[in-house]
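protien #1 (seq + structre)
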Amino acid sequence: MMTPDFFLEIEKKTLSPYACLTSASKGREKPEESSPVRTAYQRDRDRIIHSKSFRRLMHKTQVFLSPVDEHYRTRMTHTLEVTQIARIIARALRLNEDLTEAIGLGHDLGHTPFGHAGETALRSCFNPAFHHARQSVRVVDRIENDGAGLNLTYEVRDGILNHSGDAVAETLEGRIVKFADRIAYINSDIDDAIRGGILSLSDIPADLLEILGEGYSERINRMVLSVVEGSSDKNEIAMTEPIGDATERLRAFLTDRVYINSAAKVEEHKAKDLLVSLYGYYVERPDELPPLYRKIAEEDGKETAVADFISCMTDRYAVDLFRRLFVPDVWRGGAV
């Protein structure tokens, strides 16, 4: 029968000297016996895939709120795209693909309903410092598994926490996910914006298309190859120039044309108001929270518990709950 040492030896023989070996992991908060057939990072991946928060991603907004067309991305499809891109890069660099995969699958578990509009709503009514990356770690530590958490390894939690903004993960595998996240959402958001009639390919600056490519797959391929080339045999993850510069300029273009000033955003104020209303309702009535969140309210405070409850909602659950709480039933009595 195979032993844990068998897999650890394979990693030592095949992975880059810059890879995060499972044998070098800082471990879990609660020590566990090793599996005879899976490394610690493989177990983390499996725990995330089987979690409730992962399943809910299929009904959470990526960019477009409640689209009728089922081909628009959701938070779930975005997560799968990020993970696929990250694994390709990790494999090419001979880094730890299992660790990269676990981080990619878990990086958005704490994202709010209605995408970044929900994040903005919780910043306004709960805490200005609320951020989906920190909430994702809270989900795997404090909320999943009926409050017991998933007991993930330090490196996976670090990668989830530091996948966004100016944060930098301790491992190269975590840094790969940060690049993969940007590559995925930049290109999928262009694809969805064109499908929604918000953009046409001709709207994108011609010099960016010349550098990065006109087609969806072509752009992803060039960006991925740029990361691989810029990171090979180095203890860092970086894009080469001019691909890196063009990618950042394309992201800035999308921020202005899609993320802020587009027709896709005209309904966002309604989503924000909806979540702020739900927050206010349950802060005043914490006894109406589900049992897990009532327990969190007792231990961490009602405001935190309500924010946890809301961040775990899917779009449609939030809408249905709002209707039940705030929209009166139609009177169906007889004629006056």
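ok now protien #2
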Amino acid sequence: MAKAVVLFSGGLDSTTVLAMSHAQGDELCALTFDYGQRHRREITSAERLARYYGVVEHKVLHLDLGQIGGSSLTANMPLPEGRDLGEMSHQIPSTYVPFRNSILLSLAVAYAEVAGADVILAGMNSLDYSGYPDCRPAYLDAFNQLVSLGSKACVEDGRQIVVRAPLLYWDKVRIVQEGMRLGVPYEQTWSCYRGEELACGVCDSCQLRLKGFREAGFHDPLPYRENIQR
């Protein structure tokens, strides 16, 4: 049993991570960010799911990365839609938010220092087709080195704060299978980048999610637009 800070978006991956830690009996603090993302309805999902799992504390931090721009998630830029999975793997997509994971993880470390947590759990996945550079094992290793050198808790207090990504080497099929085994209420999660009333089914995130459920042999309970193959 550990006290852990979960970087919690309310999406498929982070909810599965939270459920896994909850099943182990960990004491959980959830940290969600409203950073100006167009799909900020995921925050509502995070709030609902944090209550469902009875986390000790759920913080929603507000920062406006839209002022920096450079991403189709935070600026007036078209979202990539209808891409095949091979195309997704060839380049970093426009949904990459400049240095987002480093910004959010830094705030999570600050929270962990104050909350007395020695573990930060993130839903990063290196086998996704998204191609984000800040979801790679080498990135995670480097960030943990930064934490060990730059936090008072580690340098002076003798603590060891570690960022862990339990799904780092898992594909979406295995993630869905584990979540279903744990009874994750996936109908309450949100993955679509558009953030509308119904999931679009054609953005990269929707396609990867649908593929995971389909290949795992389960029906995705999230409501989608009509004529979306599941």
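The longest strand covers residues 27-34.
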